[in-house]
């Protein structure tokens, strides 16, 4: 196990086998403050806060990933390959595309399509589909049902572009059945597969791409409790 990397410096604090990864480091702090016991901070490099504690007796870590595939690509790679992490569950927000999805619904990302070239580094002779771990998907759905959450399981889009010059972009992905758009999961799923590890993305719908509906920044940071609880219960 590596003691430190340029991006993660635990200073002797353990990192659990399962890590929850919100994009926002303040959401990581919120989860640690409100759900974990016996919390220790294991990272503050670049203000990408990471914490380890216990949830119902299970050791769990939570750490911010930053925005976009290059950022989560670095952190997830190091956690899987240098810190012996087995499972990463991304907990984030996404913009809904389909008409039957509403604000605060939960999307469980079975797969992550992408317009990114992140996959090119693996020299795969074809078009690889980044997918989540099936056991994590079924466990997340089971815990979501127990909480009474409204869930949608399927394909999301991990996009490299937040502002896209192509005005047909969202419509084309909607037609292909994409549930929502976020910016990280494809890289996470690819890193997990390549390392022989597990990954899952769970999202709260923060806005609707085709309707004038959106949550506030404070709500995105603090109010997505169902998603957090599903991820914590799913953590192995």
From TrEMBL:
Residues the entry annotates as binding a purine D-ribonucleoside: 7, 182-184, 206-207
InterPro entries named in the record: DeoD-type (IPR004402), Nucleoside_phosphorylase_CS (IPR018016), Nucleoside_phosphorylase_d (IPR000845), Nucleoside_phosphorylase_sf (IPR035994)
Any GO CC annotation of this UniProt entry: cytosol
Q: What is its EC number?
A: 2.4.2.1
UniProt similarity note = Belongs to the PNP/UDP phosphorylase family.
HAMAP family in the cross-refs: Pur_nucleosid_phosp
| Name of the protein in question | Purine nucleoside phosphorylase DeoD-type
Identify the species of origin: Staphylococcus argensis
Gene (name only) = deoD
């Amino acid at each position: 196990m590596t003691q430190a990397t340029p991006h993660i410096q635990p200073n002797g604090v353990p990192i659990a086998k399962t890590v929850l990864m919100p994009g926002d480091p303040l959401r990581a702090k919120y989860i640690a403050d409100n759900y974990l016991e016996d919390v220790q901070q294991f990272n503050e490099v670049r203000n990408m806060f990471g914490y380890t504690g216990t949830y119902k007796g299970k050791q769990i870590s939570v750490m911010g990933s930053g925005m976009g595939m290059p950022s989560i690509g670095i952190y997830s790679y190091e956690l899987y390959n240098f810190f012996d992490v087995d499972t990463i569950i991304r907990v984030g927000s996404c913009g809904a595309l389909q008409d039957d999805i509403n604000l605060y619904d939960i999307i469980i990302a079975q797969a992550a399509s992408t317009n990114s070239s992140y996959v090119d580094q693996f020299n795969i002779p074809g078009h690889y589909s980044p997918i989540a771990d099936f056991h994590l998907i079924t466990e997340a759905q089971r815990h979501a049902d127990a909480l009474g959450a409204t869930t949608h399981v399927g394909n999301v889009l991990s996009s490299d572009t937040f502002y896209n010059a192509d005005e047909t972009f969202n419509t084309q992905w909607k037609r292909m059945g994409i549930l929502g758009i976020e910016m990280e999961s494809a890289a996470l799923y690819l890193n997990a597969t390549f390392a022989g590890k597990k990954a899952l993305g769970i999202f709260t719908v923060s806005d609707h791409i085709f309707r004038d509906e959106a949550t506030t920044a404070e709500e995105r940071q603090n109010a997505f409790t169902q998603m957090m609880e599903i991820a914590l219960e799913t953590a192995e």
